[in-house]
Amino acid sequence: MRYDLANATICLQGGLRLESVKEYDPIAQMFDQLIDLEPAVITLNLRNLIFLNSSGINILSKFIIKVGRKKTSQLVVKVSQQHTWQSKVLRSLQRMMPTMQLEWDNST
Length: 108
Hints:
Layout: E1 2-4, E2 9-16, H1 25-37, E3 41-52, H2 54-70, E4 74-79, H3 84-94, E5 101-104
């Protein structure tokens, strides 16, 4: 996980298989700190995130809902076609925040 405050960018990579939502608290706190800064654009790069369990998806959902409610930042999520879970999950989450922009890589 990388967090670039200057560019309002969070990169998650590898696999996140923490046991419970509680174990995702440090990531949730990082998300909240970024939302509180109210940047014009928040970028979440998931292209190298191979796996995210249901607890992680829950935290991601809460983050998207919070960004949408605050209405101060555009959310851009960079996703990969190589990881099928991203297509399924992010398209569903986009229903919660229709203004969320999904940027797909060109890989097949």
